[in-house]
Amino acid sequence: MTTYDPAREGAEMSFDGRMSYGDYLQIDRILDAQRLLTGAHDEMLFIIQHQTSELWMRLALHELDAARAAIAADRAPEAFKMLARISRIFEQLNSAWDVLRTMTPSDYTTFREGLGQSSGFQSWQYRLIEYAVGNRNLAMLKPHAHRPDLTAKLEAELARPSLYDEALRHLARAGLPVPADVLNRDLRQAWVANDAVRAVWEQVYRDPARYWQAYELAEKLVDFEDYFRRWRFNHVTTVERVIGLKRGTGGTGGVSYLRRMLEVELFPELWHLRTSL
């Protein structure tokens, strides 16, 4: 049997002083970032699951920024692909919980004390995603107060129109009757369900052929929130499976805190209108 040699077909095999796969992706830095504090076997799983989730969140923020800019420039069709990609990113984030759920309560107790006060709710990228799409809870700035650089990032986001704000401004520029007080609202405040906005979206859904672009934008937003809700639900289920109803490492109520987050609606009018159609 002849040994296969890729070089015979032109594959590059020498990388002395040249860019390799590992160089481009900085693999050494990534693989050196798993620093176990306890030596427990399942701590590696816990660290990698959360690190990879943060990488997916970074990509989600990259796509969110681009989608928001496209909508603000009335290039909504460009945003549709980005919004669809964000939904797929959250599908990947959902799948990550399946891996973490292989860790039993007994496994977790072997390294839980090593976490100190660290907790997932302190993720500044997750907070930035929530702020970017419109869930602007100012109380959640506090966990980042010790890092002026992170506080500055979050404050800069709060000063910008959210993804949902830009979607509504886009509808207004297209001639739909979005109320002026909605368009001129205090951007730092969390979105509150608005009957007039629901009526605008309902107008779109009652005549999709006439308002096809707005209709497609609405469904892309619903797709994203659908996956986002699943991610939150899977988070609750995983935490309850691993720690039961114990308080979280960061001091939250754990499962009770996460269940409360399930009640948050990012784009409430797009869900409420379905009842009245």
Molecular structure report:
- The protein is an all-alpha fold and 277 residues long.
- The protein has a single domain (42-276), classed as Methane Monooxygenase Hydroxylase, Chain G, domain 1.
- Helix content is 60%, strand content 0%.
- The longest helix is centred in the last third of the chain and has 32 residues, at 212-243.
- The mean pLDDT is 92.
Short synopsis of the structure:
With 277 residues, this protein is mainly α.
Primary descriptors:
0% strand; Methane Monooxygenase Hydroxylase, Chain G, domain 1; 277 residues; single chain; globular; 13 helices; mainly alpha
Q: How many distinct folded domains?
A: 1
Distance between the termini: 69 Å
Could you report the average pLDDT, rounded to the nearest whole number? 92
CATH topology: Methane Monooxygenase Hydroxylase, Chain G, domain 1
Low-confidence stretches: none
CATH architecture level-2 label: Up-down Bundle
Q: Considering DSSP H and I runs of 4 or more, what fraction of the residues is helical?
A: 55-70%
Number of strands: 0
Shape: globular
The main sheet comes to:
none
What is the alpha-carbon Rg in Å?
Answer: 22 Å
Discrete helix count: 13
